[in-house]
Q: What sequence folds into this?
């Protein structure tokens, strides 16, 4: 990716930023809206906390928006719906990976309940047939309108549409025998509902917007290019919350095409953004280094502001009674104080393969004395082979590694509070939230070196290079079999760890956006920080 400025910006953009007379702040919550039914991951937690602070500090100054690639515009997400997303995001439960196909999950794609409407299913089929006709004809306007109508109809009537029948209708839309749309359509109930704006929502009038904040995913679709254009046309202040440059710095751990998409979207934002909020010194360093290496305008320290993350809110809430989590407690060997915890989405960058080989070596050496390792997090891309190896390995035997793939905040709090210690051998992180959460619970964490992970550890975690497998095994054995060493380390962490609060993270972001637009705090919405 080169740093050549897109041509239209050279004639329409003004050097510097002049605060416009309009003053509303548009906060993009597209990521939270799309994933509102799933347990929150780090990016979504950050979106929620930024939204929470705006609602507490100055609700009259902010509009929350969802960007649609089909319509190429933002739709408003009403503030009461945003409040519901924030307060209900931790309601999903956990299940062991061996029982992944729960009845509720099955119903999402089955669509066979008795309240289905054949008429509305048929209408949905016609709308998607219209979209496919536009797609085949190459008429982009017809294609975009067709997709928007079909998605909105499914969003409005998803409880009444028979998705099994709708999937079968897909064979009539296939442009060739090699294309089968039935499999993708099996997930329409979730995919389409969550890619459509709230029913009845109004488009955001960009003439009323003085500043835009992107606190979530920016590297999907055409949003980044659209933002560069709208900034060029209307001179809107654009700020980005940047978590990391993983698809560029360690692109070998990204899905196919993700690195190219990320770089292409960041290209537009490096020209469009007036300010970057970086979650660590490591992220700010990577951003400046990348901009300099590729010939983009240099990014001074004042433009790359460090806003460190706090651990999730569940860390400071009361630990529930143990009997509230039978699906964890009934799992073989998962007893309070007698397991080791690894919290993360299962993907190659997080290095679960390394953790598996550590536990395999430890199982061969210690057998029944070995504490089980708990993977807490959903299974990500390109990990099927690893999970099969773990399941079939006779040394592990289904006893030494357990996986919980859909963990609620309450259950995650229980796991942190009741584990002996944690491990985190990730190759690269923008911050390293797992390390921060472990230390906030007073639990020793054995973590890898590099990127921002040592920042999160504050000198209290045990950082070991992942090339030093013997060092990892010896440290794990020390905390696993020497209770005095474990207790001393835990006490040292409790006495010395300083946890950043979410308010410390969100305050400079909200204040910068208010200062940019000349707005002030009102504190009228009554949401507690």
A:
């Amino acid at each position: 990716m080169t740093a050549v400025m897109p041509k239209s910006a050279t004639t329409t953009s003004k050097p510097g930023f002049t605060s416009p007379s309009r003053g509303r702040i548009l906060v993009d919550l597209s990521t939270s809206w799309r994933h509102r039914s799933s347990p929150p991951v780090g990016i979504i937690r950050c979106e929620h906390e930024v939204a929470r602070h705006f609602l507490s500090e100055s609700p009259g100054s902010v509009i929350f928006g969802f960007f649609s690639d089909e319509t190429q515009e933002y739709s408003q997400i009403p503030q009461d719906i945003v409040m519901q997303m924030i307060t209900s995001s931790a309601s999903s439960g956990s299940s062991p990976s061996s029982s992944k196909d729960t009845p509720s999950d099955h119903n999402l794609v089955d669509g066979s309940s008795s309240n289905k409407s054949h008429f509305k299913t048929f209408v949905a089929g016609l709308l998607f047939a219209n979209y496919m006709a536009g797609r085949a004809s190459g008429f982009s306007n017809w294609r975009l309108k067709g997709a928007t109508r079909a998605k909105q109809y499914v969003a409005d009537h998803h409880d009444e549409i028979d998705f099994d029948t709708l999937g079968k209708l897909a064979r009539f839309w296939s442009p060739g025998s090699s294309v089968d749309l039935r499999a993708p359509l099996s997930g329409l109930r979730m995919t389409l509902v969550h890619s459509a704006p709230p029913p009845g929502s109004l488009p955001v009038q960009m003439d009323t917007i003085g500043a835009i904040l992107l606190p979530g995913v920016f590297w999907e679709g055409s949003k980044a290019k659209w933002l560069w254009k709208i900034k060029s046309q209307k001179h809107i202040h654009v700020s980005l919350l940047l978590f990391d440059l993983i698809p560029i710095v360690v692109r070998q751990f990204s899905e196919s095409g993700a690195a190219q998409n990320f770089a292409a979207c960041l290209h537009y934002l490096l020209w469009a953004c007036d300010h970057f909020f970086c979650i660590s010194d490591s992220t700010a360093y990577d951003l400046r280094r990348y901009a300099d290496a590729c010939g983009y305008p240099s990014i001074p320290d004042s433009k790359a502001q460090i806003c460190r993350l706090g651990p999730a809110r569940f860390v400071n809430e009361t630990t529930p009674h143990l009997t509230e989590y039978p699906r964890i407690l009934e799992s073989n060997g998962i007893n309070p104080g007698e397991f080791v915890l690894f919290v993360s989405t299962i993907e190659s960058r997080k290095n679960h393969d390394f953790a598996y080989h550590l536990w395999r070596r430890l199982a061969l050496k210690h057998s029944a004395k070995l504490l089980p390792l708990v993977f807490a997090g959903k299974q990500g891309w390109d990990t099927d082979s690893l999970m099969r190896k773990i399941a079939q390995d006779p040394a592990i035997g289904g006893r030494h590694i357990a996986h919980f793939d859909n963990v609620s905040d309450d259950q995650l709090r229980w796991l942190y509070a009741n584990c002996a210690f944690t491990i985190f051998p990730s190759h690269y992180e923008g911050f390293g939230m797992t390390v921060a959460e472990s230390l906030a619970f007073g639990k020793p964490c054995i973590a890898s070196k590099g990127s921002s992970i040592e920042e999160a550890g504050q000198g209290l975690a045990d950082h070991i290079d992942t090339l030093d497998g013997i060092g990892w095994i010896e440290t794990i054995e020390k905390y696993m079999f020497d209770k005095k060493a474990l207790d001393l380390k835990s006490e040292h962490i409790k006495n010395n760890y300083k946890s950043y609060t979410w308010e410390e993270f969100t305050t400079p972001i909200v204040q910068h956006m208010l200062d940019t637009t000349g707005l002030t705090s009102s504190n009228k919405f009554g949401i507690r920080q």
About this structure: The first strand starts at residue 24 and ends at 28. The CA atoms of residues 34 and 194 lie 5 Å apart.
